[in-house]
Amino acid sequence: MFGKASSSQLSVSLGGSGALSHVYIQHPPLRCSIPGSKGLFYDDGNKLILSATSDQVFSWKTVPFASHAAPTSDSISEGPMLSIRYSLDAKVLAIQRSNHEIQFWDRETGEMFSQTCRSETESILGFFWTDCPKCDIVIVKTSGMELFSYDPESKSLHLVETKRMNVSWYVYTHESRLILLASGMQCKSFTGFQYGIIRLPKFEMAMAKSEANNKPVLAAEDVHIITVYGRIYCLQVDRIAMLLHPYRFYRDAVVQQGSLPIYSNKIAISVVDNVLLVHQVDAKVVILYDIFADSRAPISAPLPLLLRGFPKASSSSSRTGSKDTDSLEANDMSDHETIIYGDNWIFLVPDLICDVANRLLWKIHLDLEAISASSSEVPSVLDFLQRRKLEANKAKQLCLVVVRTVILERRPVSMVTRAIDVLVTSYSNSIKTGGYFKGIKSEKPPTPSVSNLNISTSVVDESIRREDALGKSIKHGSSSGVENESLNRSPDFPVSDPEENVRLENSNDHHSLGTKADTENFTAGETSQSEVQKLSSQSQLVGPSNSPLNASISENLESQAISASISPDEMYSFVFASVEEEMAGDPAYFVAIVVEFLRSCNVERIKVHPNIYVLTIQLLARHERYAELGLFIINKILEPSKEVALQLLESGRQNIQTRKLGLDMLRQLSLHHDYVLLLVQDGYYLEALRYARKNKVTTVRPSLFLEAAFVSADPQHLAAVLRFFSDFIPGFKNTADHTTYCRILNEMNSSIAA
Amino acid sequence: MGLSSANTVVNEGFQLCVFDLRRGQQEGQELDKILFFHPADLPFSTQLSVIGLSEGLITFTSLFKGIVFVSCRIFSPEAACEVIEAERHSHVFHQAEQDIWMVMVVEKSKESDAIWRIDALRKVLKEVHSLFVMFHGSIRSLLDKEPSGGLVRPHLYNFIMDYLSAFQKRSPWDICCCDFLVGKKIKLPSFRDCLKERGTVQMLTVGREAALEVQSLVRVLESCAGNTPCYSLVLFQDLLVSTTLSPDDTINLFTYAVLRLAPHALLSRASSWSYLRKGNSASQINAASVLASSGPVSEQFYGSRDTSPHGGEHSHHVVRPLQLNKWYKGTDGFLVTDIWGPEVGIMVSATPTVWLQQTDERMYLCVYQHKSLTLILLFPISSILNGEQGLSVVKQQIVENASLKMLKVEEKLSKGWGGENAYHVGGYRYLLVDGDRNVSRASPPGKVTTLTKESLISLSNLREEVDWEKSREIWDDPGHDKDLEICIRAKNNAWVIARTTRGKELYMVLEKANETLLFASDAVEKFSNRYCSGAFSLD
Fold first, then answer.
1. What is the pLDDT of residues B338-366, one digit of tens each?
2. What percent of chain B has pLDDT over 90?
3. pLDDT at B214
4. pLDDT > 60? residue B277
5. pLDDT value for A259
C-alpha cells in the first residue's frame, strides 16, 4: 500500500523536474537574429522583442511565447537608436534617436515627424506609450516628465502636462503603469506616478552605508517594479547590506515590507505566475518567493535554473554545452549560448530572459512538480499551488496527488486537516468570486491592507485591483484603455498578451454566445492556441463600440485561466474514492479525514455530494461500527438524502438498527412510495397500509400488501387488507388480485375451520 | 447512633442476593453457593431459605422452558424465572451469568412509595451486574480464579454496597436525599421514577456544526494514541455527546460517568466538602460496622476486612470503583483517583482500568474534564507499552493536541445548551425510549415532580402492562416489533398514554388536558411530529 503511494508520488515529482531545479527555461528559445542587427530592444507595452537593422525594425511577439514566431518588420530611416517602442494601438512607431530627439512613424502612411528637446540643458532619459486617458505618450527628461497626446490627424504631439523635477533616472513597467523617478544625490528619493497622473507620496529608499563618508548611489538596475497578485511592489537591491527591500505601493503610502537576503552582487528579478524569482546571478541560483503569504521565507532552497529540452544534452551538461553534437540544431547551439546566467543575459519584465549576444529569448517557467515535491509542509504547498494560474490545471492535478499521497501515507490528521482546509477555502473563494464556474481563478479576498485601500472605492474584485491597487479612477482608466488597445489593434499585430488574449476570447463569449457564457467552464484553457487566436480576431471584428459596457467584464475575465480549485465532487472522485480503495484495515483514519473534510465544507457552507456520505456509511458498516454510524446519522453529520437512506438500508442488512435509520430517513424525506414499499417488504404491511392511506400513496401495488399478508398466514389480516383495498380503491373488486386472494382467504378460513 | 440497628432498619423488607447454582450442591456445603447477601447480618439460615426458595423456583420453572404460562408471569422463554409475586413480597430474578442468579426481594408494604415496577427493579440488578463486570470481570471468572470464593465475595460485597449507597446520588436534584447512608430506607426506583428508564443513555441534541466539531475532536483524540486503538466517550454535563464504543459498553461507562465522573458528581464534593466528607466517612464506618455486626463467621466468610481504610493486613486488595467522592480533578485536567492505588488510603493514583465487553479486553480509563465537558478515553492495556509511563505520554499528547479543540467544543456546546430544562416540553410529561439505540429522553425531573401521585401510579401500572406486552411479543414473533397504543383516562382525569412503534416507546402524562380521546391523540401526534420526527404518527 505504501509502496504504491510513494511510487505514485515519485512519478509525479520526478516526471516533472528530472533534476534539482524549480525553475526552468525550455529549449528551443525564440531566435531573433537578423543579419545586420544593431541591437535588441524590448517593448514591454506591446510585449515585443525588437531587432533593428540600419533601415528596418523586426518585431517578434513574445506573448504567447513561441520559438518559431515569425517577425514582422517596418522600414525606418537610418540613424542611431536608443530605444524603440510601438504605440499601444500599434499604429505608430517611436524611436529615440538621441538624448534630444524622438522620431515617430505612422505605420500606415509612413509619415514621420520628430520631437526634440527645447533646450540644451535637458536631455531625454526615455519615453513610453501609455493608455492613460489624458495622454498617449510620456517622455521622461532630466528636467521632469512631459505628457503628450498624439493626434493622428495632424501627426503631431500635443503637450498635455509637464511635471517639473530633477530626474536622475527612472524605472517604468507597463504592467504596473507605474513610473518611479529617482532624484537626489544618492538617487534614493523617489516620486512615483501611475498613468502619469496619480502622484504617489514621495519616499526615500533605505540604503546601508559602507563607510562614514562613502554614500552609495542607487542605480536604476537596482530598482525593480514588479506586479504580483495585482499588487505593485518595488524591489530595491541594497548592495552594501546584501538585502533586497520590497516596498509595497498603496494609494496613500509606500511601505517597506521586510527584507530578503541576497547572495550575489548581481541580482535579477523575474515574476512568473505571481511568484517572485530572485536570480542570484553570480551564484547562478534562483530563489523563489511567494509574497502573497505573510512570511518572507522562500518557497524552496536556492537551486539553479535549468535548461530543459536541450537536444542530446543532459541537464548536467547543459551548462557546459555538449561537445559532440552533430545535429544541425545542436551545432547551431554553440557552447556559449547555453551558459546559464551568462554575462549577456538581460532579464525582461516579467518573465523573459534575453541573451543579447546570441539573440535568443527564453521564457522562464516554474516547475510546479518539483516545487511541490520539495516541501514536506503540505498545507503551504497546496496553498501555493492553489494560487497558480498559468498552469492551473497542472496545479490542480498536483494538489489532488499531494492530498491523496498524504492520506495514503497516513500523515497526522491535523496536517491533513490543514491541507483539506486550504483546498476547501480556496474552492469556497473561487465560488464566491464566481471563478470556479467561469473557469476563472480569482484571487483570495483582499488582505486587510488592501481592503483599507479600497474601502472608499468599494472595489471587490481582485482582478480589477490587479491592474492597480491605487484607486477607482485609475481602474477606469485602465479598463477602458486596455480595452481600446486590444480591440483597435491592427491585424498584423494580432495578440500581444496571453491574458488579454484569453480575455478577448471570453469577452467574445459574452457577447456573441450570450447565455453560453456561464457554461463556459474549462474550455478556455483547453482551447488550442489557434482557436484562441481565431476567437480573438473575431472579437476584434466586434470593434470598439462595445468597449465601455464590457470593459469591466473583460477586466474581470482578464486573469482568466482554469481554476486550480477543487470542488467537493472532485475531492470525492479523485481523492476519497480512490484512496478508500487503497486503504485497507482500520477505517478510523479515513473516517477522521472525511469528518475533517465535512467540517471544513460546513464552515465554508459548501454543499457536499451524497456520494461521500454513502462512502462513509459503507466504510463504517463494513467495519461494523454501527454505533458511530448511528451517531453520524442522528447528528446529521451525514446529511439525509435518498442516496444515504438507500445505503443505510443496504448496509443495514446485517444490522437492523441501521436499517431502521434508513427507513426513518426515507420517511423524514417524505419519500412515501419507497417507505411504504420497504415497510411491506419488512412485513409491516398493516403499518404500511396506514401510512399509505395517510400520505395518499397509491403507487404501491395492492398485490404486494396482499402477498405479505398471505405470507404472515393470518386470515384476519389478509381479510383486513382485502377489505382496505376494496373500500379505498375503486374497481378493486374487479381485479384479478381480488378474486385470487378472496379464494385464498376462503381456503385459509376453511382450513382453520377444519 | 447504633449503626447496626440502623442497618436493620435499612434492610427491612429488602433483600438482595447473588448465588451460584453450581456451588454448594452437597449437603452441608449450602453456604458455599451464597456469593452475596444483603443484609449480611441476617442469619445464614434465613439467607439459605431465601436462596433455597429462589433456587427451587428456578429449577422448577426451567423444566417448563418453552411452555408459556400466560396466566402467571413467572415464566418467560429466555430466563427461566423472572418474578414471583407473593402476598407480602416480590421476588425479582435476574440471571446475571450462566447459573449465577441475582434475586431481589422487596416487601409490598402499605406505604405509598412501595409500588414497584418489576422491570425497573430488574434493571437495577442488571445494572449493578454490568458495572461489576466492567470493573472486575465476570463473577464466573473471579470464581474460577479462586474457587473458594474468597476473591469474589469481598468484591461483590463492596461493589454492591457501594452501589446501593450510591443509589440516591443518581440524580443531581436530590442530592439532599443521600442521607440514606446514615440509616434510612433504600429508595428503590418506585412509581415516581416511571418517567425514567434505567439502562439507557441520555443524549445531548446538537446541531450539525457542533456535531462535526465534536467528531473532529474525537478523531484528534483517537490519533493521539498513535496506532493503539482508542475508544472515547464524550459527555456534556450529564448527557452523552459522542461515543465510539459498542452500545453495551457505552451504557455502562455512561452510567458510571454520571454517577462518579460528571461535573455534577465532582461538584457536589467540592461545594459541600465538609458535609460530604462526613457522609464519606460515615459510609466507611457503615460498611465496616456492617461487617463487625455480622459476627466472626461473616467476617471470615466475606474476608473483607480491608474495606475499612486502615484495617490491617488483608488477603485481597479490593478496588472499589463506586466509592463516593474518590475522584478529583488533577492539575492537568485529567481526573485522578486513588481507588486503583496499590493500597487503599494511600494517595497513589494508579490509572483505573475497565473491562470492555466489545473487545473483551482490559482498558485504561482516562478521564479528562474541561468545565462541563467530560472526555472518557479507553486504551487497551496490552497496547500501551511501559504502563503508566506510556500512558502519561499519551495524556500529554492529548493535552497538547486536543486542548484547543476541547475549549472550542465546550464553548460551542455550552452556547447551544438550554440548561437542565432544555428538553422540557410545555404541557407534556414524557419519556421517550429508543430501544434500538438505548437512548432515552424524559421531561426534566423537576417538572415530573409536579405530577400528581395518581398520574404517576397510573403510568407506572401502564408501563408494567407494556413491559408485559413487550416480553410476550418477543416470545410471539421475535424480530418483529408491534405497534401498540394505549390511552388511559386516569382517576384524576389525566391522560396517561403509551405508544410503541418499531422499537421506540413513548410514555406520556397529560394533566389538565381536554377530556376527549381525540385531544389526547392529537397531542401525541403533535409531540411526535415536533420532537420525534414523526416516528409515532402513523395514522
1. 777 655 444 445 778 888 888 888 888 88
2. 14
3. 92
4. no
5. 86
Distance CA B536, CA B527 (A): 9
Cα–Cα dist A303/A288, whole Å = 9
The CA-based diameter of chain A, rounded to the nearest angstrom, is 133
Cβ atoms of B461 and B507 closer than 8 Å: no
Count of alpha carbons within 13 angstroms of residue A131, beta-carbon side: 25
* Among A650, A252, A676, A309, CA closest to A469: A252
Which among B464, B500, B470 is positioned nearest to B485, based on CA atoms?
Answer: B500
Please state, in angstroms and rounded to a whole number, the distance separating the CA atoms of residues B227 and A588: 10
Q: How distant is the Cα of A690 from the closest Cα of chain B, in angstroms? A: 6
The grid cell for B327 is: 475522584
Give the burial class of A390: count Cβ atoms within 10 A of its Cβ; 0-12 exposed, 13-18 middle, 19 or more buried: middle
B324 three-class SS: coil
Q: What is the DSSP string of B412-466?
A: HHHHH---TTTT--TT-EEEEEETTTTEEEE--HHHHTTS-HHHHHHHHHHHHHH
A166 touches chain B (CB under 8 A): no
User: B250 CB contacts (<8 Å, ≥6 apart)?
Assistant: A627, B201, B233, B240, B243, B438
Residue A55 in grid coordinates: 533601415
Burial label for A295, CB within 10 Å (0-12, 13-18, 19+), is exposed
**Which runs of consecutive H residues, i.e. helices, occur in A510-624?**
516-519, 523-526, 529-542, 547-556, 568-570, 577-582, 588-603, 610-622
Q: How far, CA to CA in Å, does A221 sit from each of A143, A203, A267, B226, B494?
A: 21, 18, 9, 55, 94
By a Cβ cutoff of 8 Å, what residues of chain B touch chain A? 203, 206, 208-209, 211-216, 219-220, 222-223, 229, 242-247, 250, 401, 436-437, 479-480, 483, 501-503, 533-535, 538-539
Q: Is the pTM of this model over 0.80?
A: no
Q: ipTM, 2 decimals?
A: 0.83
Statement: residue B215 has pLDDT above 50:
yes
> For residues B455 and B460, what is the distance between their CA atoms, to the nearest angstrom?
9
Q: How far apart are CA B445 and CA B360, in angstroms?
A: 36
In whole numbers, what is the pLDDT of chain A averaged over residues? Answer: 74
Which regions in chain A score pLDDT beneath 50? 1-18, 313-333, 439-561
Model confidence at B310: pLDDT above 90 = no
CB atoms within 10 A of CB B254: 25
For residue B401, what is the nearest residue in chain A, using CA coordinates?
Answer: A414
For A324-374, what is the HEC assignment?
A: CCCCHHHHHCCHHHHCCCCCCEEEECCCEEEECCCCEEEEEEECHHHHHHH
Helix axes A392-408, A2-16, angle to 10 degrees: 150
